[in-house]
Amino acid sequence: MNRTPKKSYLLLAGLALSLSLIATAAFSADGKTLYEDKGCTGCHGEDAKTPLEKGYPRLAGQNGGYLLQQLMDIKSGARKNGKIPDTMKPVIDELSEPELKLLADYLASLKWVSQGTPPEVAPPGKKLYLTKSCVACHGKEGMKPIMKTYPFLAGQDRTYLLAQMKDIGSKARENGLSNSMQPVMHLVNKKEMDAIAKYLSLVK
Amino acid sequence: MKKLSGLLAVSLSTSLALALPSLAAGPGDNIKQGKSLGEAGYEWNKGDGEEAEALKAKPDLKNGRDVYEVCSACHMPEGWGLTDGTFPQLAGQHFKVIIKQMSDIRAKNRDNPTMYPFALPSQIGGPQAIADVAAYIQSLKMNPKPGLGDGKDLALGEKLYKENCVRCHGEHGEGDNEKFFPRLEGQHYNYLLRQYQWIKEGKRRNANPDMVKQIQTFTDRDTKAVLDYVSRIKPPKDKLAPVGWKNPDFK
């Protein structure tokens, strides 16, 4: 066996060393600890599915790719709708990208608040959900988003859902992939948006 | 040595996974992006990559129907889109036009964030699937009642159309399959208007530079008049479905 390491191995070893230093820093805390220590629990609830008040989203079991994109966009200021700049951005600002990834992975690993069981009495929102193209991206009962970067909607807070629909329609929210949703928002008026939000929030 | 490379692999994959947000879609979705309008070396319909492969494929209508199920959520089971122009009518569009546009959207040479995820190989399959669905779409009969403009300036519209558009899009807006020029007759007015504006402004990155240049002098009145005229051209009878037709393939 040739005991002299080849040049490429040296290079790789150096790369690995520097990368593993990053990794070590990231693993100094786990996602659950971050979620608790950084005060996320205060607004989103200890179980991440019991928000402090209406209008705050449930996070437990949300799509990991979507969560990470939102966290990074809130940190960068790309997502600035609603109360985000005053409430959440200051908290996120002090977290590194690897820490945000840990948070997203932790939240994604929890059981989503809904199993996708439709409400016994389907409100009119269900028909709108199916006919106004929502189902194409977010899937049956809001449980099967077509991309990892699209959110689950089933069982989400009704006030939050309505606010996001309005904000994406008005371009108050235009981060991430919301530009794929904006062009269809004129298909529904405010009353219809609320009906859709009500239906989705009721999916068990 | 074995141990070292094992460690290397672990630490590399961990750190890379941390560093790179997993925003990519499924495997095989990394299609090479070509040049687009405004970039040096842009050539309209260069026709390489997936487009060339799909054009060579022998289309399978039955699979085309299955692939189309994904599309039908927005473009409707009949392929008629929405009369308000949110989604275009696809029914009756030329085989090669569909192949070109789908390939361009997949390769991000035409921006369509709403449609993009549905066009990916992980959703519908490779170039063969593009050919299959294009053949299915071409076979669908068209909406006899598309969305129209206000109808107030049709004489001007007709004059402008005959002077400017006929050379490529044909006397009746029938387009040209061989040359990849789209069928325009009976397309929803609002959709035509949006695409036309995007072509004029350079926002539609796979546009034909000759058309971009040609329409620069059109005023807003000209634009509305000519597109209103186009949306009202009746496609040939054998291309049209009866009013209110429902596609039996998606019952």
Number of domains of chain B: 1
- What is the CATH C-level name of chain A? Mainly Alpha
State the helical fraction of chain A: 40-55%
Number of strands of chain A: 0
What is the CATH topology assignment of chain A?
Cytochrome Bc1 Complex, Chain D, domain 2
Report the CATH C-level class of chain B.
Mainly Alpha
Give the overall silhouette of chain A: globular
- Please name the CATH topology of chain B: Cytochrome Bc1 Complex, Chain D, domain 2
CATH-derived architecture of chain B: Orthogonal Bundle
CATH homologous superfamily of chain A? Answer: Cytochrome c-like domain
Q: Which of globular, elongated, flat, extended, rod-shaped describes the shape of chain B? A: globular
Q: What is the count of DSSP helices of chain A, taking H or I runs of 4+ residues? A: 11
Largest sheet of chain B at a glance? Answer: none
Mean pLDDT of chain A: 88
Largest interface: A-B, 36 and 27 residues
The termini of chain B sit apart by 62 Å
